[in-house]
TrEMBL record:
It comes from Salipiger abyssi. This is FlgN protein. The lineage of its organism: Bacteria, Pseudomonadati, Pseudomonadota, Alphaproteobacteria, Rhodobacterales. GO terms for biological process: bacterial-type flagellum assembly. Gene3D superfamilies: FlgN-like.
């Protein structure tokens, strides 16, 4: 990077562009792109901390975008957790299922028997 790449205005512009790419990746569900973007974002934020812009107002749009992206991250994580819970519940049902009989007693119904293949030499 040249010295021009380290000016506060250039760093703000680069971070702004990166936050838009991060937002698009989150909206598209391209979670594999998030890791490299996070590393790049951390490097830009560190450089920006060393050379902050003269006017604090220049940081306000970045702050808003950072908050917006954090909300998207939170929602994505909630979605992943919900899917994991649902898959766990489906796995549980496949193994066995709890039901109630006509008298209101709980009973367990076994799931599908897994076929086992026996090998003989």
């Amino acid at each position: 990077m040249t010295d021009d790449d380290h000016t506060p205005d250039t760093l703000v512009t680069a971070l702004d562009s990166l936050l838009e790419r991060e937002r698009n990746a989150l909206l598209d569900g391209a979670l594999d792109e998030i890791g490299p973007l996070m590393e790049e974002k951390a490097a830009l934020v560190a450089r920006l901390a060393e050379a902050p812009p003269e006017e604090a107002d220049a940081m306000q749009p970045l702050h808003l975008k950072l908050r917006r992206n954090q909300q998207l991250f939170d929602h994505a994580l909630d979605g992943i957790r919900n899917v994991a819970k649902r898959l766990g519940a489906l796995r549980e049902i496949r193994d066995s299922m709890e039901v109630y009989d006509a008298q209101g007693r709980r009973a367990s119904i076994g799931g599908e028997e897994k076929s086992r293949m026996e090998r003989r030499a």
